[in-house]
């Protein structure tokens, strides 16, 4: 079952400033902010520059009506262009539903990150669909049963 959907605003080094601005303007509650330096080390990857380490990896505001806005700076090695700075995030409660939706959205589109386990989700991936809408799909699940994501 789809648990939640929310806009994800992506910036080119300005996520912290935008986060603070929208928190004040929208009277929103800061639910947390993580910088790239806070993520676990990835084996065989290049270390991030000092500047990149201080960029926002993920931040969440809760609006007074209970809705959420998510924020991030573009991952340091990914290209950024104005116009691709909003994606829609879908959070499911099962791996199977995450995979099924991801596969359907990927038809005719372009996958940026294959579905995989991350430190924040047992199954996460992102893509641009055939209409050039960017999507992030994630699973929020207490137990992680085995699923073959390579089908």
Describe it:
The chain has helices at 15-25, 50-53, 95-106, and strands at 2-11, 29-35, 56-62, 68-73, 86-92, 110-116, 124-128, 134-139. It has 151 residues and is α+β, with helices and mostly antiparallel strands. Strand 3 (56-62) and strand 4 form a beta hairpin.
What is the CATH topology assignment?
2,3-Dihydroxybiphenyl 1,2-Dioxygenase, domain 1
Order of helices and strands: EHEHEEEHEEE
CATH-wise, what's the superfamily? 2,3-Dihydroxybiphenyl 1,2-Dioxygenase, domain 1
Q: Structural class per helix/strand content?
A: alpha+beta
Q: How much of the sequence is in beta strands?
A: 35-45%
Question: What's the alpha carbon Rg, rounded to whole Å?
Answer: 16 Å
Characterize the biggest β-sheet. Answer: 8 strands, mixed
Indicate the CATH architecture. Answer: Roll
Helix content range: 10-25%
User: Total helix count?
Assistant: 3
> What is the mean pLDDT?
87
Low-confidence stretches: none
Return the domain count: 1
Number of strands: 8
Task: Please report the distance between the alpha carbons of the first and last residues.
Answer: 21 Å
Strands in their spatial order, largest beta sheet: 2-3-4-1-5-8-7-6
Q: Which CATH class?
A: Alpha Beta
Oligomer: single chain
Q: Globular, elongated, flat, extended or rod-shaped: what is the shape?
A: globular
Chart the SSEs and their pairings.
Elements: E1 2-11, H1 15-25, E2 29-35, H2 50-53, E3 56-62, E4 68-73, E5 86-92, H3 95-106, E6 110-116, E7 124-128, E8 134-139
Parallel strand pairs: 1-4, 5-8
Antiparallel strand pairs: 1-5, 2-3, 3-4, 6-7, 7-8
């Amino acid at each position: 079952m789809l648990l939640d959907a929310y806009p994800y605003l992506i910036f080119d080094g300005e996520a912290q400033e935008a986060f603070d601005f929208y928190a004040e303007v929208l009277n929103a509650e800061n639910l947390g902010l993580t910088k790239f330096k806070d993520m676990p080390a990835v084996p065989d990857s290049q270390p991030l520059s000092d500047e990149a380490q201080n960029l926002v990896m993920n931040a969440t505001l809760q609006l007074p009506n209970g809705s959420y806005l998510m924020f991030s700076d573009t991952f340091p090695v990914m290209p950024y262009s104005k116009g691709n700075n909003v994606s829609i995030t879908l959070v499911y409660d099962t791996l199977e539903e995450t995979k099924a939706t991801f596969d359907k959205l990927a038809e005719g589109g372009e996958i940026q990150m294959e579905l995989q386990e991350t430190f924040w989700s047992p199954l996460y991936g992102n893509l641009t669909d055939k209409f050039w809408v960017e999507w992030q799909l994630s699973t929020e699940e207490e137990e992680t049963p085995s699923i073959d994501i390579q089908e």
